[in-house]
Design goal:
This protein has 533 residues and is of the alpha/beta class. It contains 13 helices and 27 strands. The strands form six sheets. An eight-stranded mixed beta sheet has the order 2-1-3-4-6-5-7-8, with helices on one face. Strands 9, 10, 13, 14, 15, 16 and 27 form a seven-stranded mixed beta sheet that branches. A five-stranded parallel beta sheet has the order 18-25-19-20-21, covered by helices on one side.
């Protein structure tokens, strides 16, 4: 048993999880030698020992597995298409356990029916390779999603590859960020990836009919668009009013899910984005709310009722709509940025920082997020150069003081970034203009972490409601937009101070305003009724 990776408490929990396996699951490990093989054998042996329905078999797979530290899952002797190359510990441990449970029919795949239909309709072989870092908290979502797809369709296979253990292929493919997904040997997606975006790219490969996604969803009193704190708060408050509620969310948790440490949520001294997202989901499930996850709204037609077109092609009808789509990382919009995302340009220091160990890097942005990233990266990188557009840093003084105390952090203010340069396909420098002298400078670096704030996710609205110059939805004190029956809350709106606690309060307030609106506009379509979940 691998005592370092698997404590007795962890193994006890695994024993409870696998007690419900309905199929036998075999972990098939490629034979051969590798410096990490003994550790992997101990790791897998300990897991296999937790249930008589689990087994570890070392076998020569005749080249179907990458290396002696690669293994695949079989269920009742049949291939699942799920492969792990490396030791799936850390954040990826859950990916392995979920793969075992789902392969053994002990856990539901928890995918929307429209997504299941799309994946099953793919009729061409797709071989995915997902390059991950064990410190990446976004990577498991991608690995787990593609594992589900492999279980749904025998034409799909997927392999998790720990980049730390396969440096040769990392260099060969010039991978500088995770998750990085290859399909049939070609780059498919990289950088910030979620299930909804993967589905959007797969959808053209699916054979479906125009009626494939028709549903009998009743007209809803309220449809909430978004999956962050504001959206979940609005949905719960609406359900508590006895209204029928559907939530459309690309990713449950929103930006919160990507936040490491949270210490400013009043009454909760400390938590993490992952834990808070889990708590939000658990609270949502306490109510009769329909959750349509990994889908987006592509269009909203104003009227009575409003008609919402989903990315799956479906149409939903609602008497009121609450938009809480949040915001995403803002890009610099300079040459060399977008084309190098995931290849030297990054947004998540926790995910991609390890790829720049011992290298010179830059952080663009002198606010709290920028200085926190610089401090975090200073323990990994050789040097960190912070570039701030304004004359002074915007971060809290305590963060500035800590950064000034770090000998490998340099801070440059009044710097207008102009271009990210590359050399032989890799980021090599960031060019900027000194705003006080107009002199042009270049900082030699191997990677750039962009930390300049957030951009509201409002582009799908297509002039439906009035927006600010920054793309934020303009609302009044009740969360009302310029269109009757359409409300908005959270980071996508003009409400100042984008904080979790504020978003939760705004969601509750907007829900109450929407409820008041519905009371004054005809009889509810399904007072107290549920659309199912």
């Amino acid at each position: 048993m691998s005592s370092e990776l698997l404590s007795s408490e962890i193994l006890k929990a695994v024993t409870n999880y696998v007690a419900d396996l309905k199929k036998s699951v075999t972990l098939v490990l490629q034979t051969g030698t590798h410096e990490k093989r003994e550790e992997l054998v101990d790791f897998l042996s300990a897991i296999a020992a937790t249930s008589p329905s689990l087994d570890l078999e070392q076998r020569d797979t005749q080249g179907s597995l990458r290396s002696p530290i690669s293994f695949t899952l079989e269920a009742d002797g049949e291939a699942t298409g799920i492969i792990f190359s490396g030791i799936p510990s850390g954040h990826e441990f859950n990916s392995l356990i979920l793969a075992i449970l789902q392969s053994g029919a002990a856990s539901d795949l928890k995918l929307d029916a429209s997504i299941i239909e799309t994946v099953r309709s793919v009729n061409q072989p797709l071989r995915f390779e997902v390059f991950i870092s064990l410190s990446c908290h976004n990577c498991p979502d991608v690995v787990q999603t593609l594992n589900k797809f492999a279980l749904l369709n025998e034409k799909i296979s997927t392999e998790m590859i720990d980049g730390g253990l396969f440096q040769g292929i990392i260099k060969e493919r010039e991978i500088q960020g995770v998750p990085s997904i290859f399909m049939n040997g070609e780059l498919f997606m990289n950088g910030k990836v979620d299930t909804a975006s993967i589905i959007d790219k797969l959808r053209p490969m699916a054979i479906t009919t125009d009626t494939a996604f028709e549903r009998s969803t009743p007209e809803q009193d309220v449809v909430v668009i978004g999956g962050g704190p504001a959206a979940i708060s609005a949905a719960i408050y609406s359900a508590r009013k006895g209204l029928s509620v559907t939530v459309i969310a690309e990713t449950l948790g929103g930006q919160v899910k990507d936040t490491m440490d949270i210490e400013n949520l009043i009454s909760v001294p400390a938590t993490t984005g992952t834990k808070l997202t889990g708590n939000l989901h658990a609270h949502l499930r306490e109510y009769d709310i329909t959750l349509r996850e990994h889908l987006s709204v592509t269009d909203i037609e104003q009227g009575e009722p409003k008609r919402l077109r989903l990315s799956s092609g479906e149409l939903l009808q609602a008497r009121a709509v609450i938009i809480a789509t949040g915001a995403n990382w803002k890009e610099l919009g300079i040459p060399g940025e977008k084309e190098n995302i995931g290849n030297g340009v990054a947004f998540c220091p926790h995910c991609d920082g390890p790829f720049f160990k011992g290298k010179d890097i830059a952080v663009v942005g002198g606010g709290n997020s920028g200085m926190e990233a610089a401090l975090d990266l200073s323990g990994i990188a050789k040097s960190v150069t912070v570039l701030e557009f304004l004359p002074t840093l915007k971060a809290d003084q305590i963060l500035v003081d800590r950064a000034l105390d770090k000998p490998n952090i340099a801070i440059i203010t009044n710097a207008a970034c102009k271009r990210i340069s590359t050399d032989r396909g890799k980021v090599s420098a960031v060019e900027y203009t000194d705003r006080t002298t107009d002199a042009e400078h270049s900082v030699a670096i191997a990677g750039v972490f962009v930390q300049i704030g957030l951009e509201p996710n409002s582009e799908f609205l297509n002039d439906l409601v009035e927006l600010s110059d920054y793309g934020e939805i303009i609302i009044n004190e009740h969360g009302e937009t310029s269109q009757p029956g359409i409300f908005a809350c959270g980071d996508v709106t003009t409400v100042p101070y984008k904080q979790i606690v504020i978003a939760m309060g705004e969601g509750a307030k907007t829900s109450l305003a929407a409820s008041d609106y519905l009371m004054r506009h005809s009889v509810p379509a399904s007072q107290g009724a549920a659309a199912g979940s």
